[in-house]
Amino acid sequence: MKIQEVTKRSVTHERGRPFRPQKSKIYISVSGESVIQNLMNRRQRPYTSYKKELMPEILEKCNLPKDTKVSWSQKAGCACGCSPGFIIQNGPWGNMFFVSVTE
């Protein structure tokens, strides 16, 4: 696995409503994956491999300290489980990091 791109988005509002502070999140997507493949693989991502192999480099590219604690959540972005990701437990609030990887 290799990191292809990391982008950051700061959340200042939610669809016209005032911003409700929330923990920052890291979402990982696989480059070249079709929409159908993404839907099929969404609940079986190798998140332990992501955390072990990629997380130190991801934290560095996101300008976060090496001791930043992250935890996997199937429901990181939505209560239905459609947008799994890592929740940053002890870092800045209100940021979303989108990481594109190649397998």
Order of helices and strands: EEEEHHEEE
Uncertain segments of ≥5 residues (pLDDT<50)?
none
Class inferred from helices and paired strands: alpha+beta
Could you tell me the strand content as a percent range?
Answer: 25-35%
| Spatial order of the strands forming the largest sheet | 1-7-4-6-5
Overall structural domain count: 1
Please state the average pLDDT score.
87
Helix percentage range: 10-25%
**Count of DSSP strands:** 7
Oligomeric form:
single chain
Quick one: biggest sheet? 5 strands, mixed
* Rg of Cα set: 13 Å
Distance between the termini: 4 Å
Number of helices: 2
What is this entry, summarized?
It contains 2 helices and 7 strands. With 103 residues, it is of the alpha+beta class.
What would your notes on this structure say?
- The chain has 103 residues and is of the alpha+beta class.
- The chain has one domain (2-102).
- The protein has helices spanning 35-41, 47-61, and strands spanning 2-10, 13-14, 17-18, 25-30, 70-73, 85-88, 95-102.
- Strands 1-7-4-6-5 form a five-stranded mixed beta sheet, covered by helices on one side.
- The longest helix is centred in the middle third of the chain and has 15 residues, at 47-61.
- The model has no long low-confidence stretch (mean pLDDT 87).
Question: Which key features would you list for this structure?
Answer:
103 residues; alpha+beta; 21% helix; 34% strand; globular
Describe the SSE topology.
Elements (H helix, E strand, L loop, with lengths): L1 E9 L2 E2 L2 E2 L6 E6 L4 H7 L5 H15 L8 E4 L11 E4 L6 E8 L1
Parallel strand pairs: 4-7
Antiparallel strand pairs: 1-7, 2-3, 4-6, 5-6
